[in-house]
Design a protein that fits this description.
Metallo-beta-lactamase, Chain A, binds zinc ion, six-stranded mixed β-sheet, 9 helices, single chain
């Protein structure tokens, strides 16, 4: 396997398989073992490790059944309960897959309190970010840790613009509809909607995205812009809330708005 591959699972999840040396792969967030095991068998691939971003069941429920067939390490967030975890990891740790593949662990709390992401530097780099960043959106806050989530997204935004963003759900079109509602005059969003619609009609996956593209269309990475500040101010005024006095405050307003959209 040459490139990272998406295994669709459930209604809209993607389980990513990242190539490693020879015919080995790294499995990212296996919420369901069945599509993973059939793909491995059909393509004569052997899993080398499982890496996990957070504890939601649709990211971890396939781990134990995979371990029943393959004795491989399981890397996951140090502060969360992950079935079968052998290697708890946190910010600054490195996950060595082979001589060419070393993943850097980033703490990205917010969707869950212990959520981590895995970044492989390169040209382009790859980021496995679970339910933190989506194309044109971001994860729901199960935690209400708004400031943590805002900082987590800022941390991701500091990676190189060509970084490929491997998020865990096909939410792109629905997210874009909210993004367009916030920023109706943003032509990058309109162009992305047209492109995403035609990809979905053709049955194509809209991921990975790139960080550079996300910075143009993703409202949750654009909380510092006049466009999103104006939208958040409008929503705050209509709902009897304080207008945002910072990008972090605008983030909080639009995250709540998205939950009600
Ligand atoms: Zn989740």
């Amino acid at each position: 396997m040459k490139h990272t591959v998406a295994i669709p699972a459930f209604a809209d999840n993607y389980i990513w398989l990242m190539p490693a040396a020879q015919s080995n792969v790294v499995i990212v967030d296996p919420g369901d073992e069945r599509p993973v095991l059939s793909y491995l068998n059909a393509n004569h691939l052997t899993p080398f490790a499982i890496i996990v971003t957070h504890h939601c069941h649709d990211h971890v429920d396939g781990i134990k059944p995979i371990l029943a067939q393959y004795d491989i390490p399981v890397y996951g967030p140090a502060t969360e309960r992950i079935p079968g975890m052998t290697h708890p990891v946190k910010q600054g740790d490195l996950v060595t897959i082979d001589s060419a593949t070393q993943l850097q662990v980033l703490d990205v709390p917010g969707h869950t309190a212990g959520h981590v992401a895995y970044y492989q530097p390169g040209t382009p780099g790859q980021l496995f970010c679970g339910d933190t960043l989506f194309s044109a959106g971001c994860g729901r806050l199960h935690t209400r840790l708004y400031d943590d989530m805002f900082k987590s997204l800022q941390k991701i935004a500091a990676l190189p613009d060509d970084t490929l963003i491997y998020c865990a759900h096909e939410y792109t079109l629905a997210n874009l509809q909210f993004a367009a509602h916030l920023a109706p005059d943003n032509s990058d969003i309109q162009a992305k909607i047209a492109q995403t619609r035609s990809m979905r009609v053709a049955g194509k996956i809209t991921l990975p995205s790139s960080l550079g593209d996300e910075k143009k269309i993703n409202p949750f990475l654009r909380c510092h812009t006049a466009e999103i500040t104006a939208a958040a101010t409008r929503y705050a005024t209509d709902n009897g809330l304080q207008p945002p006095s910072s990008a972090a405050a605008a983030f909080r307003i639009i995250r709540d708005w998205k939950d009600r959209f």
